[in-house]
Fold this protein.
Amino acid sequence: MSDDRTREIADGRTTLGIELGSTRIKACLVGEDLTVIASGSYEWENEFVDGRWTYPLAAVETGVRGAYAALVADVEARHGSAPTAFRAVGVSAMMHGYLPFDASGDLLVPFRTWRNTSTGPAAAALSDALGFNIPLRWSVAHLYQAVLDEEQHVAHIDGVTTLAGYVHRRLTGRDVLGVGDASGMFPIDPATQDYDATMLATAQDLIGVPDLRALLPEVLVAGQDAGTLTAEGAAWLDASGALQAGAPLCPPEGDAGTGMVATNAVAQRTGNVSVGTSIFAMVVLERPLSTPHEELDVVTTPAGDAVAMVHCNNGASEIGSWARVFGRFAEAAGTPVDADTVFRTLLDEAADADPDAGGLLAVNYLAGEPVTGVEDGRPLLLRAPDARFTLGTLVRAELMGAFATLAIGMEVLHAEGVTVDRMTAHGGLFRTPGVPQRQLAAALRVPVALEATASEGGAWGIAVLAAYLEHAADTSLAEYLDTTVFGSAATDVVAPDDRDVDGFTAYLARFRAALPIQAIAATVPGATPADAAPADEHGAPSRPGATVGGGRDATIHGGEPTDADEPGLPADTDTDTQQEQDGTR
């Protein structure tokens, strides 16, 4: 252990980041040089209660405390010193959803997560009225749907926030949000870096509440004062009572924002791709889009710049399912191997396979997919009798299937004339170098970069935003990331290969042609919740799930939450929020 690190910890010169992903809550401690000193995590699961996906607030408290306690234990084991104070603290969490509170601070209905997409009528009406795409999962859509459904709790709402906003309020007593997280509640005006005033007035008339702005948290940009850790907040976080009050907190952010920070993608003409249970791309815009698009969410960076987001419900989970099958085969054959070896072996096979996957086609839809208008998902593997069916073409087809819907959504951005110099990828899938990065570059037709620090994920990203508090007066967030955070970081960039691009183009044509098959496949019943809930004989839990979603009001069946946390990865290589969190690696 380093005496310098021990002194840093004892003197309270470290920075704490906490991110609540869909399947893991992670705490990350960084030193003054922004390298990770220690981490801790807590696994949790959403619950399907009364037809909605939720996490009880008691589970939020237990989980945050558990992750923090695990962090403290890791610090003590590595450095022989437990932290009692921090230089700064930041909180991030999965975006969107609905947490309405009354004037006494009591939650009126259980937390409705981003995964609840029964908001089709509200989202459509808001989108039409505002001339701005309001996705199903946005907080304002949940609020208006509650009004349309005449839910009794609406009359008692004093305020609505996100999960990050709730945890931040418990720690500081302040009802604020970072602008990136706020942009998943209601549209942001990049000029004011606040909720769009004209849209607020229109939405208020439509929804019928007296003062819509008063229900929403205050909006702050990166680097602004978001309060300090109170004595009550310190006791809420640290059950041991050792943590002292007084640390400043940065504005709480969403997992998309921390993903942008973790991949140095907050400047114009930059973007990032997060691959987990879902897959999404974020591109920082140079100018407004010419018209609203259902395929695109317009959100912001933590600094308030407009971002176009292509969000696909289905990512790499199906690849993870195949990997578990092959891992079990190796175990049954008497040669068990770990998850990393399984993935490395499969992806190595795909590297030299036919560029178009030999005529195979894999559709990765565990859930409905709004980008392609698919209401209900069923994973498919299709091949003509003369297709080249090998291990390599199978894996390559599944890999290209994971990127196909994202490529379709990105075509909308290309048609808008949006230019991106490169995309930075993150997620456990990219821990195996080579073919995943190559295939993503071919799918998006732009260079794809991997940053050495991206694997630290959203908890590290929010810790960086907390550290930025001391520098915000002197430098922009983009400059801070470029010079201080990523100045010496190793970056691996892969440009699109013409052969891969041609192969993916042929594959994508087959993918589009096969989409109508999803409607037929969806008529085949799946496992009932009673059948799906128990773990299988090898201990792999199956999750039941049916909720309304896909399109404006379709049905999502199965699938897992979006988060780049991926079972099979070591606990200290969490790659989201985004994040993303899940059923892949």
